[in-house]
Amino acid sequence: xxxxxxxxxxxxxxxxxxxxxxxxxxxxxxxxxxxxxxxxxxxxxxxxxxxxxxxxxxxxxxxxxxxxxxxxxxxxxxxxxxxxxxxxxxxxxxxxxxxxxxxxxxxxxxxxxxxxxxxxxxxxxxxxxxxxxxxxxxxxxxxxxxxxxxxxxxxxxxxxxxxxxxxxxxxxxxxxxxxxxxxxxxxxxxxxxxxxxxxxxxxxxxxxxxxxxxxxxxxxxxxxxxxxxxxxxxxxxxxxxxxxxxxxxxxxxxxxxxxxxxxxxxxxxxxxxxxxxxxxxxxxxxxxxxxxxxxxxxxxxxxxxxxxxxxxxxxxxxxxxx
Length: 322
Ligand SMILES: NC(=O)c1ccc[n+]([C@@H]2O[C@H](COP(=O)([O-])OP(=O)(O)OC[C@H]3O[C@@H](n4cnc5c(N)ncnc54)[C@H](OP(=O)(O)O)[C@@H]3O)[C@@H](O)[C@H]2O)c1
Description:
Layout: H1 17-20, E1 21-23, E2 30-32, E3 34-37, H2 48-60, E4 65-67, H3 78-91, E5 99-104, H4 119-133, E6 138-143, H5 152-164, E7 168-174, H6 178-190, E8 195-201, H7 208-211, H8 214-220, E9 224-228, H9 263-278, H10 283-293, E10 299-302, H11 307-313
Parallel strand pairs: 3-4, 3-10, 4-5, 5-6, 6-7, 7-8, 8-9, 9-10
Antiparallel strand pairs: 1-2
Helix pairs in contact: 3-4, 5-6, 9-10
This protein binds NADP nicotinamide-adenine-dinucleotide phosphate (NAP).
């Protein structure tokens, strides 16, 4: 398709409805089993037409959930600007078919009010995010991380008030420890703004949310769970089995550094790859399917630097049972 043409979404995008969507906890929201994250590949440094093609492919195949945060880029804020441009260029007619999230919690602007969990930061940050994304509201707004210094009541009340002000429809938390999750669940329920979802890192190399009891708590209390970095930033693909390819995330030595790729890890990846081959699947496909098979998981939140990667990864919905 010539991307200069007006984008018209594929008429068959919901053909696989029953296989593609899962209920998010005990809520009215269905999320696609595969969601698309904008952490990498959608910033000001990335080619817009490539980012655009990835989102078209995603939406054309039923991926209705795009996940952002204030500081995704680089530079910070530019992934949301890309989303804003996409809204303008392509997705405005489909706004009600999209579930768009953003977050605040990490460093965003200078000074004492551009980081962590204060009401001052969360409120201002969401206003900025909405402007960058050309949106009146986000579907989901997260506290991006637990802040041990700010009273939890302050952070959570800001989330409640954001919903009451119509700037977000639902709220979520990311990377909060179990005890804080329990507190948030109770606090938000009592104010009729139930916690929709918890975002945490769960993959074949990192099972912390299971080991810490977060997944069980979510499953037992009607809270959805979405797994970020389900491919461990690309480690759980065939990409790094032999070398570190030029242009890969690891070759850029930023969020994924080459010191992670120890001989032990490489051996572990080779064994997982062999297991995937026995199943007739790629390592990426098996890894995503494994996350989706865990009790309480609503969706895997993948990243992609090309349409081809997303296309390959979507095969996880056809995987064999474990
Ligand atoms: N809440 C949080 O604190 C938090 C933290 C991290 C992420 N997140 C969210 O989770 C989303 C996903 O995170 P992630 O990007 O780390 O996810 P991921 O799916 O684990 O890794 C995605 C990367 O792996 C590589 N890849 C993907 N499919 C591949 C394939 N089939 N073959 C070879 N390489 C493949 C690509 O990197 P290359 O560039 O090497 O091609 C791609 O950008 C983020 O965008 C963000 O929305 C949230």
